[in-house]
Amino acid sequence: MLYTFDIIVVGGGHAGCEAAAAAAKLGSQVLLISMDMTKFAAMSCNPAIGGVAKGQIVREIDALGGCTGIVTDKTSLQFRMLNRSKGPAVWSPRAQCDRTLFSMEWRKMLEAHASLSFWQDFVVSLIVKNGKVEGLTTALGIKFYAQAVILTAGTFLNGTIHVGLAQLAGGRMGEMPSAGLTEQLVESGFESGRMKTGTPPRFDGRTVNFDKLAVQHGDEHPSKFSFLPEIKPIEHQKPCYIVHTSPEVHQILESGFDDSPLFTGIIKGIGPRYCPSIEDKIKTFSGKDSHQLFLEPEGFDTNEYYLSGFSSSLPLDVQYNALRKVEGFENVRIFRPGYAIEYDYFPPVQLYHTLETKIIENLFFAGQINGTTGYEEAAAQGLMAGINAHLKLHDNGEFVLSRSQAYIGVLIDDLVSKGVDEPYRMFTSRSEHRILLRQDNADDRLTELSYRIGLASDCRYRNVVNKKRAVKEFISLVNNISISPDEINPYLESVGSALITQKRKIVDIISRPEVSINDILSVSDFGTAIDNIENLTAEVIEEAEISVKYSGYIEREQLLAEKMSRLENVKIPVGFDYSKANITIEAQQKLKKINPVTIGQASRIPGVSPADVSVLLVLLGR
Fold first, then answer.
1. What are phi and psi of 216, to 5 degrees?
2. Concatenated DSSP letters for 557-599?
3. What is the average pLDDT across 322-342?
4. How far is 374 from 306, CA to CA, in rounded Å?
5. Residue 300 has pLDDT above 60, yes or no
6. Which residues contact 55 (CB under 8 A, 6 or more apart)?
7. What's the fold here for domain 202-337?
8. What separation, in Å, do the N-terminal and C-terminal C-alpha atoms of the chain show?
């Protein structure tokens, strides 16, 4: 029927687009409902993808067969690998993107799926019978039916925009909010809350004096997000710029604090700790005279610029006057003021690890509705929700990633097991296995898993098999080929490394932190020895070098991950009575509220101690 589908995805943001694409690619008939079909995966805030830990998530999305990495590579303005001066566990790719092209490219990706349909409208209510979702109703009064619904509402649920004391209803500047869904879900037994985020003003680049700004270029040899060989790195990059505030700028901003909705109590929602507004930074770090900001382009063919680090909900005149005191911004014109936005979210402890809700069957939540912040976190949730909705409808089990398999696994486990008390943002420090969860090996970790369920393509799988073989052959060579003092000592001396007095295996030289494998390839005959390795690429060499240099750490992490995974295999029976267990009252309350599926999940719930876990293991016969 025209109005009947397998899965309906509500919302065309980053979560909704990944969810719809994944479910359609797996074979479900999908309907994607969006308020504005010209703004798929809109970059409402910073026009960039990736960053610390977020870049790892995007590479994981790509390894699983998602689209965010591909779209990013096709629309990049600049690429940088962050944290290169540190260990590879925290190397993080980041790309500045063309905001308009990003949405257009996403639409092309979505429209390429014949089983994916579209509808532009507002969703006002869900159709729920006997505790199971059966469809929804739109503002036009149209009823669409489906076996599963994925709700990815972003900041649109009862969204309110703040600029100074002015308020208007909106999910994004110039766009209407979504009303009715929160109220219906609360009536059904869900708990909801309010969160807040913000965005900086946008500028006319023609009115900025770039000669006064410090230039920040992309990498000399840029990489990319997608593991697909046909997707190429960016060739022509645009620069970003670094600027700083001053005491005079701070003084002007402080003059508007009495009219700040953030400080007057008008804004009730919880804001992001790690992406504070400029007024929040000035108040929190009152002894600091200057804050670093980044001026970033919004596209190839536009003069619009974005000032990262200057999120604000202060009155327009305060924002404007303060900006004109920033060096290089003396004559700046604003396209749009910065603003804060409040919106509804639902504490994610109300979800299973599949992102299906515990209260309404076949209803899935993904993205900011779960209390997260960031395009990358939203896209990852959307991908997993789309996969699991499809699998459930076809009785094919569930697709859940562990904390030792992916940052996506860390993200979802943190949400479901710990909940959120502020907008959740991923960091490498959130993972206890980050040396295993590197950006370079995401395809090794995840593509085969995705291939088994039919999402990752044959091409992706073959690429991973070939890459693994090449890495193994490369490591075998460095373990078996020796290098002489005459060949390597001049190089070792140049990098301040101890000289050798007799032939040594290349693996011993590579293991030194100051030594680069690419340098060894250029100063020795080892380069000719690897010519026979098929599918040898820069990515293969990088992963092989990391595997050699950090082999001890990697092996130790793998043993720890295996030890911890044993707790994940101990299932907790449905309806287990925690009141009969000799554990603390706090642990009983937390366990009853979250209802963990395994002892591993129970052990990560705040308030559940190792002693409580030991008691549960005994009760479960372990």
1. -125, 105
2. HHHHHHHHHHHHTSBPPTT--GGGSSS-HHHHHHHHHH--SBH
3. 96
4. 16
5. yes
6. 49, 82, 92, 93, 94, 225, 376, 439
7. Elongation Factor Tu (Ef-tu); domain 3 (2.40.30)
8. 52
The CATH fold of domain 470-556: Arc Repressor Mutant, subunit A (1.10.10)
Give residue 142's Cα distance to chain centre: 34
Q: Where are the domains of the chain?
A: 4-46+65-71+101-200+343-429, 202-337, 470-556, 570-619
Contact between 163 and 174 (Cβ < 8 Å): no
- Residues 119 and 124: their CA atoms lie apart, in Å, by 14
For the beta carbon of residue 224, count every other beta carbon within 10 angstroms: 22
Burial class (CB in 10 A: 0-12, 13-18, 19+), 199: buried
> Edge-to-edge, what's the strand order for the sheet holding 304-308?
214-216, 240-244, 292-297, 304-308, 202-204, 334-336
pTM of the model: 0.94
- Structure-token match 């479910």, residue found: 23
Residue 150 makes CB contacts below 8 A (sequence gap 6+) with 7, 8, 9, 10, 16, 19, 23, 364, 365, 366, 382, 385, 386, 389
* Helices assigned H by DSSP within 118-224: 181-187
Q: For the segment 368-386, what is each residue's pLDDT rounded down to a tens digit?
A: 999 999 999 999 999 999 9
* DSSP-assigned letters across all residues of 161-191: EEETTEEEE-SBTTB--B-SHHHHHHHTT--
Q: Which CATH number fits domain 570-619: 3.30.750.24, 3.40.50.720, 3.40.50.1820, 1.10.150.570?
A: 1.10.150.570
